[in-house]
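To: structure desk
From: M.T.
Subject: fold request, one chain
Message: Could you run this one when you get a chance? Sequence is below, nothing fancy, just the single chain.
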Amino acid sequence: MMNMNFNKKAIGLISINLILFIIVLILFLQTPISDPYSFFIRLGALFGFTAIFLATTMSPFMVQLYKIFGKPFVKQHHLYSIFGLIMITLHPVVFAIFKMDITVFVPDFSSWIAFWELAGRPALILVYIASLAAIIRKKIQKYWRIFHILNYVALLFAYVHGVLIGTDFQNLGILIIFTVMLIISFGSFGLKRYQTYRRKQKIKKNKINRDY
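Reply: Done. Structure tokens follow.
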């Protein structure tokens, strides 16, 4: 079991994350479930999006979260990433079994509308590429940030896919919560880029001072 520092801040953050999943689950259950396939298809998409959202928004706060959780924070980050990957994979896999059609994994470029209605397909590919890049991160340190950005693009694709044809997005609560999650994720992306910019400026300034 994870040797985590269960201080008040750690417990509070974990509780907030769990509450988010519980709220999503409650809203999910408000829409009638027609069959077992529908249950796993829909819940996989919702929980997958939520987990990846939590994993990506941790990036700008690595230092603060490390101080709160200690070393196990990295494991927690990986836990969200792995859980999200499993859930978003469950979504199309169960749908493919239900439809008996393997083409549900193939992006549709037949038209602009078709691409966005089925944008979950390229979103899955992007998340897998980003996950693979994370595994071999040490070998591609120069390009790591480019691959990490794919997670944010995948969230956008998945969100549009859900809004256009998702059953659960007809629920106003789901629509609002997932819209807020998307906005926060892009806000965290902007914050991360700003932090990187400030760090580079600080290094540049220190270098100039040393030269003088």
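Reply (cont.): The domain at 8-211 is CATH 1.20.120 (Four Helix Bundle (Hemerythrin (Met), subunit A)). Let me know if you need anything else for the meeting.
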